[in-house]
UniProtKB/TrEMBL annotation:
Protein's name according to its UniProt entry: UBX domain-containing protein
Composition bias type Low complexity, residue spans: 216-229
Gene Ontology terms, MF aspect: ubiquitin binding
Any Gene Ontology biological process: ERAD pathway
Length: 635
């Protein structure tokens, strides 16, 4: 007996010597266990290699070749170093198989995505890293259109989803269109690697084909590509036959188990269909034709107000009064930072699903129960939302993810079937911290709901007592520290006030001095500028001149000749050269009295009528009389 074959049989029987001997002398009849299958047809497998540099390579091989052959072809096509060990992740079997195993016994799909692990990865530049991350995020944010054909009803649907959407959520949305529960939906066209938890963007760019239902028969035999001794090839052949026998047994057991599970699902689906039809008929007679929230607006106030109105219309005024607004605002109302510790209450979150048969029964018999409603009103802040519409569902789950950051409650809601709704969540916390105390589903009764509420209130009161005690101790410590600081401040306050008063007086004197110096420097600058810009005085006897006298504020009287063609601006340059700038002074003609400063500087002396006049330079103090004189002079 060949040693390798004996060792393989011994290992196949879990190292049971008696079982190995019995299997050797009484081999199982494969034809009696194995179901009839069509003859195996050799097929090709496409490997998509994702390299660390962001590039992709495709390798197309026959499934009769060995794993080592695939690795060598991939190493050549991807230009990998021959001396480096080659390793890929993403094998459907888990870890990377041995190089001597043929692909036919691994039951691989037609397309396999492998990721190359570089043994000596080069550090990525920040620009490359940010670019790769940006491309991945852009791919996730792209929208894809699914063309769905309902073969039962003969309807076609086109739904547009973002790349982050999961298949399980898509099935829930299809349920709202076709009234076929997700567990009864049978899909064709998804890639073979698709599952309910895979995001849609990971399958973007693939051609969707219907997977074949026939199971291919693995072929034994040796591979000429790898070579080796004849005894080793025979041992490998026998090992493959043993693996194939075990796989056939496993497949048969799995098929029987799947058939039984499918029959159970069908029975449950039929029962659910009958209950659903009866509930729909009852709602039709009661005039219930839609969800509690029928709009798709992003405004939480509008949505919660619509739910409150519809809830009152269906079930009357016996139920609790729901909070209008965002869930975060309801939590702040219950136990936010502005709420005193002694006034903290529970947050009761009611999640409605119109697809549930128990939705209206739960509302009318439990939420509208007198004891439950009064208890919630007295001890909780109630907030309600309808997640029947998939857009409202996403809004609610995103909000719960932000509030309850551990993700347990949102994961629980995503796994719940429509029949498990409605759901009541009792939450407590402080400020921005939120904690779920208990949950009640559709199978609850009024008594169990009341017990859960009372237990949650007891837990909340216990925590409030601890918080109140800690708050009192903190306030006592703060008062002691405040008293010590107050006594210390009183001893320093008098000295500080004296020092501040002296510093203020010094600062005021210094500011006054600087202001005076600044004004003097500014006046000197303006005076010098006026002197530089003042045209020279015309000579005596020059034709077209006029003689003007100026009475200055310091008592001096100056006389000067000007050309009749000079502009009024020359007069202001003259008084500016004497130290009386026009910004602080004005020029007044005595007879008739008129304010020369109010006239346009572009006018000439002749146009104004100045020939031999007396002018007075006054401080810039305006009066109603001067303004009236100026207006008369302009006329």
């Amino acid at each position: 007996m060949d040693r390798d074959l004996a060792l393989a049989q011994f290992q196949n029987t879990t190292w049971n010597l008696e079982a190995a001997i019995a299997e050797h002398f009484n081999p199982p009849e494969i034809e009696e266990v194995r179901p009839s299958r069509p003859p195996r047809v050799s097929r090709e497998i496409k490997f998509i290699i994702h390299l660390s540099n962001g590039q992709d390579r495709e390798v197309l091989v026959d499934e009769e070749v060995h794993v080592g052959t695939v690795l060598e072809i991939a190493k050549s096509n991807c230009n990998l170093r021959q001396d480096d060990p080659i390793k890929f992740t993403g094998w459907p079997t888990g870890g990377q198989p041995d190089n001597d195993l043929p692909l036919s016994i691994l039951s691989l799909p037609s397309v396999v995505n492998l990721i190359h692990i570089d043994p000596n990865p080069a550090p990525l530049l920040p620009q490359a890293t940010s670019r790769i991350h940006r491309l991945r995020e852009e791919r996730k944010d792209r929208h894809f259109t699914l063309k769905i054909e309902d073969t039962d009803q003969g309807d076609d649907h086109q739904l547009k989803y973002p790349g982050r959407k999961k298949i399980a959520l898509i099935k829930d949305d299809v349920y709202s269109l076709t009234l076929i529960p997700p567990e009864r939906q049978s899909w064709k066209g998804w890639p073979t690697s698709a599952s309910d938890h895979i995001k849609k963007h990971t399958m973007a760019g693939k051609r969707i084909k219907t997977a074949a239902s026939a199971t291919n028969k693995a072929k034994g035999g040796s591979s000429k590509a790898n070579g080796g001794s004849t005894s080793r090839q025979r041992a490998m052949k026998r090992e493959q036959e043993l693996v194939e026998r075990q796989r056939v047994r496993t497949v048969s057991e799995r098929e029987r188990s799947n058939a039984k599970r499918l029959a159970d699902k069908r029975r449950k689906a039929e029962a659910y269909k009958k209950k659903y039809a009866a509930e729909m008929q009852r709602r039709k007679k009661a005039g219930i034709n839609g969800d509690l929230i029928q709009s798709n607006t992003d405004d939480w106030i509008v949505s919660t107000t619509e739910l409150q109105v519809e809830f009152r219309r269906r079930f009357g005024d016996k139920g609790p009064q729901f909070f209008i607004g965002r869930l975060e605002d309801a939590a702040a109302e219950a136990y936010g930072s502005r709420v005193k510790v002694a006034d903290r209450r529970l947050l009761a979150i009611y999640i409605h699903n119109e697809k549930s048969i128990s939705a209206n029964i739960f509302c009318s018999q439990i939420l509208c129960s007198k004891n439950v409603s009064n208890f919630i009103t007295a001890n909780c802040v109630a907030w309600a939302f309808d997640m029947t519409n998939y857009l409202n569902r996403d809004r609610l789950l995103n909000t719960l993810d932000r509030m309850f950051q551990n993700g347990n409650i949102t994961s629980q809601i995503r796994r719940m079937s429509p029949d498990q709704f409605p759901l009541v969540i009792l939450s407590t916390g402080r400020s921005a911290y939120h904690e779920v105390l208990s949950t009640e589903k559709s199978n609850a009764t009024a008594e169990s709901m009341l017990d859960s509420l009372m237990n949650s209130v007891t837990i909340n009161e216990t925590r409030k007592e601890d918080d109140i005690k800690a708050e009192q101790e903190r306030l006592q410590r703060e008062n002691e520290v405040a008293q010590q600081e107050s006594a210390y401040e009183q001893t320093l306050r008098a000295d500080r006030e004296k020092m501040e008063k002296l510093e203020a007086e010094k600062l005021t004197a210094e500011r006054e001095r600087q202001k005076v110096e600044k004004e003097e420097r500014e006046n000197l600058r303006k005076q010098q500028q006026a002197e530089d810009n003042l045209p020279p005085e015309p000579a005596v006897g020059t034709a077209g001149t006029c003689q003007l006298r100026f009475r200055l504020p310091d008592g001096r009287v100056l006389s000067r000749r000007f050309m009749e063609s000079d502009r009024l601006a020359v007069l202001f340059l003259f008084i500016g050269a004497e130290g009386f700038h026009e910004s602080n002074h004005r020029l007044i003609r005595q007879i008739p009295r008129a304010d020369i400063s109010a006239l346009k500087r572009s006018k000439t002396l002749k146009e104004v009528g100045l020939k031999q006049d007396n002018l007075v330079v006054e401080a810039n103090v305006e009066s109603e009389e001067d303004e009236s004189d100026d207006s008369e002079m302009e006329e």
